[in-house]
Amino acid sequence: MPSDEKSHYTPPPPVPSYEEATRGYSNNNASSSSSNPDWRPPASPIDTRPDSETEAQGLLASSSSRPRRTTPAGYQPPRVDSDEDEDGASEWTLESDRDDDDDDDDPNHNGGDVGGARTRREMEELEIEDPLNGSSASSSSRSSRSLLWRKRLALPNWKWRWRIPRMTVRLPRQSDGVAAGSGSGSAGDAEAGGESAATQTIRERLRERMPEIDSSAAFILIGRLVGLTIVLGFIYLLFMSDLFTSMSRRIGGQMFDPEAVRQHVVMSIDTARMRDTLKHFTSYAHIAGTEGDYALAKDVYNHFLRSGLDEVHEDDYHVYLNYPTKDGRAVQIMSEDGDKAIWSAKLDEPEIGGESAGHQTYAFHGHSKAGDVKGHLIYANYGSREDFRKLKEMGIDTKGAIALVRYYGTQGDRALKVKAAELAGFAGCLIYSDPADDGFLKGDVAPSGRYMPADGVQRGSVSLMSWVVGDVLTPGWESKPGLPRMKVEQTNGLVRIPSLPLAWRDAQVLLQHIQGMGQPVTEAWRGGVPDVEWWTGNSSSPIVRLKNEQDEVEQKTIWNIYGKIAGIEQTEKSIIIGNHRDAWAFGAADPNSGTAVMLEVVRVFGDLVARGWRPLRSIEFMSWDAEEYNLIGSTEYVEANVDELRKNAFAYVNLDTAVTGSEFHAAASPVYRKLLTRVLDRVQDPNFNASLRALWDGRNGELEGLGAGSDYVAFQDIAGTSSIDIHFDGPMHPYHSSYDNFDWMSRVGDPGFVYHNLLGRVLSLIILELCDRPVLPFDMGNYSLALEKYVADLIKWVEELKLQDKVHLAPVRDAVQEVKTAVEEFEKWEDEWQRAIIHSNGWEANSVTRSRIAYNSRMAAFETALLDLEPGGGITNRTQFKHVVFGPQLWSGYDEAYFPNIRDAIDAEDWKLTETIIQKTARILRQAALSLLPSEEAA
Known about the structure:
Layout: H1 18-22, H2 27-35, H3 51-56, H4 83-88, H5 95-100, H6 111-126, H7 174-184, H8 187-191, H9 197-209, H10 215-240, H11 243-255, H12 258-268, H13 271-281, H14 291-306, E1 311-334, E2 341-344, E3 365-366, E4 371-379, H15 385-394, E5 402-406, H16 414-423, E6 428-432, H17 435-438, E7 460-461, E8 499-502, H18 504-512, E9 543-565, E10 570-580, H19 588-610, E11 617-624, H20 627-630, H21 632-640, H22 642-648, E12 649-655, E13 663-668, H23 673-680, E14 684-685, E15 690-691, H24 692-698, H25 712-719, E16 723-729, H26 742-749, H27 754-772, H28 780-800, H29 810-826, H30 828-839, H31 846-865, H32 900-907, H33 911-931, H34 935-938
Parallel strand pairs: 3-7, 4-5, 5-6, 6-8, 10-11, 10-12, 12-16
Antiparallel strand pairs: 1-2, 1-9, 4-9, 9-11, 13-16, 14-15
Helix pairs in contact: 7-9, 12-27, 13-19, 14-19, 19-27, 21-25, 23-24, 23-27, 28-29, 29-33, 31-33, 32-33
């Protein structure tokens, strides 16, 4: 029970009379109120008077029929509807409460219930029970005595109230003073300095409303202020000492332990899902820009959505593509007069996909030149520039002829084969798959083996990828509506003579028809086609017709699909994973083994996000279109977002022909060595009962160089984003043919889809390393060692050419040493950071966090610093390619090359240009070294 001691009770101020309460109304106010029955007083402010006044004073009611009038501030007109109201009312009825009541306009409405309801709410909020009834205030007829103890708490030997007395004092409204002054004194009296009756009244009422603060209330007030100061000070120290931030990180680490996350993603990779995905994505042909391609783009889009990625969107570009027509292709041996065909090549493979797959793709070359040409047939080995020079030395007339060359060999890029034939004066070019390079002489052929059968045809693009990458009509900018476009005849990215691919069954007939003509070839030129005597042919060879009429679309729509998981520490920084979707035929290995792996990894990471996990840096998944033509989808994206990528893209991971066998390979920037070996240690190959790291070391595996063969080109060579391409290789697969289908993959390429599963694990772990390690796991020391090796190889090459008197590479060599020194100094910080974290038992101060984030950014920016971004910079005559270390040479095609600009200048025997490029390369290397230092040190 509450104490009955009188000292606990603070008597209320005297209740003003009705005249005192209403004297603030002038006759004008009264008349305006009565003349307008709809007039309502403005809502009064919340009553903030001391509790003692509110508790002690009941509600008196005024007649509900009397017009409402505005009362003096702090006081409400009493209501006298009934005695029951008086007993039941417990708190002042606020004007705002009445206005909000639905029954306010009802003249029979009981205003006391409003006050009682509000009292009950307050008591329920404070969880104070009625001391008499033992329950919360719910009765409409409580004893008024209980109201005296409402909201009070008595403690032994402590005489203090539960609530601090309210300190707000309500002043009379301005109208009170005016009205009072008019009745008690004149303006002249006021001007004479006399105090008016209104002023006296205000003073009296202020005294009445001033709360009485006894010693116990003052003690409570001071105590609470001291307590509040202590709490605020503690919170301040908590944040300033970084304990709160560190604690939140530690809690997050306990909820999502990094090792547990790694184990989770590894065990979550579902082989059956990848098998089903691959079966679906290889169920019909889907060349870029076609209906099948669009259907699969929507499938990827919907998969990203179902996986719960934060952002999913489609990005369209309008690019130059070509397509074969049904009767637009022909390779024929003509009669002597050239008017009649005496033999025609079959060109296409037999239908392999079945009825449900629809018609498979015609055999053709993407971006080939349209035309219908005739000429005598000449065999030119692999079609390299050296091979055509050899023909010239033999005295073979090649002008206006049709070249027959084989895939692979000394010139791996089919486009450069056609270009070399064009420069040698040929009118057209035919490229076939020879059994010595890709056929029965190498092993079992498809569909039961890995090599090309007699009727297998390797499709592919003949755009000059190492000259112009992306849409050949918009080199250097994205292919969007409204932006400039070149004419087809203006671009340097297209060849100028028609070409077609052939199976060796068709090439056999052509080779047999030139036996005994021209010159017999050397052993190095002899292929594996059976029943053939190998001759070059000459102007007396049979006339061959090459017809290549096609549909050409200068602005064909293609579709990239993007999905993103936002990071929590560096949201703007991204780890990008990409795989192209389009295929020349069914594309089981190229590219859809990579598609199946990427979509499964998307599902696994989407599940992680659904569980509440978040990476430190953002993860972006990208499905590229039109890669097969000229790396178009990825390049257009990079060109559209190049500034953002140079600033915020930390890494690019590429999947393409991801699984064709059991041997793991990686082509990458040197920074990935440490990360990759760490990942390979964690993945076991069940077929060999060894880790991938052990198998890698067992064959002396090394990071391979990045050439110009897949979607990493634009990221590495244009944006300066450190890139890696990962895959499991086999000895061979039926590349770009209709035999690269689901049946081949399930029986030959990867029975049981074991290596799809392993690559999914490798990819997931690489992503976690890149996106969720506090310190970006780049191996900068290995980069400096690799640069030393690249320079040594360049010097050796110059010496082999006996050009050391003309080519002086000392500036580049010295600049690489500066990079090495800067890297050694740079990497010391990570050791210091690790010691600091260990010393602080895992806590990381905010200042250290900021330093770590800046350290990561400088590390990732090192690759970007190796770009030649000066006006007109880049590789000479190919300014899309900006990297001074990586990039294709003019004639290297898919093969990797180091310091390509210097090599091109030496090839051109332009010694002045060579010296200029050497000096610029050295300067850029030194600037990259400085970029590793903090800004104040670099300055």
